């Protein structure tokens, strides 16, 4: 752990319950913390505020971020598995080379977010909206010969955007038939 540039840096830690993180939560919020190579599992963040945090090479498993508010946070090389992000609000967040698997992002609101090389597998995005977001359209995920950012300005159906860009993958037969 170190502190520089007004950010606390935490490396190589595993947080497996709310008590593990309690000392970093102030006024129901996590703020100005850099988590590097950390693992988060079985934690309920219900309604918490997460601002100005950076997560690098981190794993999130079996967590609840229901009704959380994320602001100006960056997730780089992160893996999200079985995460509940229903009704979460994400503003000015960046997702760089991230992967969502078996997550619930239903009724979430994404505004002014950037997604670079990020994929969504078996992820529920029903009723999620996106406003003024950018996706990196690369040959890795999108059937195109170019690499470029695609901007979505107006409020849109987030699930439809991801399907159109081939960034969302369903492996269950029922989900494939409903696409």
How does this model look, in words?
The protein contains three helices and 23 strands. With 179 residues, the protein is mainly beta. The chain has one domain: Pectate Lyase C-like. The strands form three sheets. Strands 1-2-5-8-11-14-17-20-21 form a nine-stranded mixed beta sheet, with no helix packed on it. Strands 3-6-9-12-15-18-23 form a seven-stranded parallel beta sheet. The longest helix is centred in the C-terminal third of the chain and has 7 residues, at 158-164. It is globular and about 40 Å long. It starts with a strand and ends with a helix.
Summarize the structure.
The chain is mainly beta. It has helices at residues 18-21, 158-164, 173-178, and strands at residues 2-4, 7-11, 14-15, 29-31, 33-36, 39-41, 49-51, 54-56, 59-64, 69-71, 74-76, 79-84, 89-91, 94-96, 99-101, 109-111, 114-116, 119-121, 129-131, 133-137, 148-152, 156-157, 168-169.
Q: Top keywords for this entry?
A:
Pectate Lyase C-like; seven-stranded parallel sheet; mainly beta; nine-stranded mixed sheet; 179 residues; disordered C terminus
Largest sheet: 9 strands, mixed
Strand content: 35-45%
| Low-confidence sequence ranges | 172-179
Query: In angstroms, what separates the terminal alpha carbons?
Result: 45 Å
Element-level helix/strand string: EEEHEEEEEEEEEEEEEEEEEEEHEH
CATH fold descriptor: Pectate Lyase C-like
Shape: globular
Order of adjacent strands in the largest pleated sheet: 1-2-5-8-11-14-17-20-21
Structural class: mainly beta
């Amino acid at each position: 752990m170190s502190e520089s540039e007004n950010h606390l840096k935490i490396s190589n830690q595993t947080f497996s319950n709310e008590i593990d993180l309690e000392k970093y939560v102030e006024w129901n919020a996590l703020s100005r913390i850099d988590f590097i190579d950390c693992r988060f599992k079985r934690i309920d963040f219900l309604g918490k505020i997460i601002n100005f945090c950076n997560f690098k090479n981190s794993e999130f498993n079996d967590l609840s971020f229901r009704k959380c508010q994320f602001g100006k946070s960056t997730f780089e090389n992160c893996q999200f598995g079985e995460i509940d992000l229903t009704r979460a609000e994400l503003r000015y967040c960046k997702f760089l080379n991230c992967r969502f698997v078996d997550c619930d992002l239903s009724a979430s609101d994404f505004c002014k977010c950037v997604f670079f090389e990020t994929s969504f597998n078996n992820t529920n995005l029903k009723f999620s909206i996106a406003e003024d977001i950018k996706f990196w359209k690369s040959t890795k995920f999108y059937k195109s010969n170019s690499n470029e950012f695609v901007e979505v300005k107006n409020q849109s159906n987030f699930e439809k955007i991801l399907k159109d860009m081939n960034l969302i993958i369903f492996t269950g037969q029922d989900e494939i038939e409903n696409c």
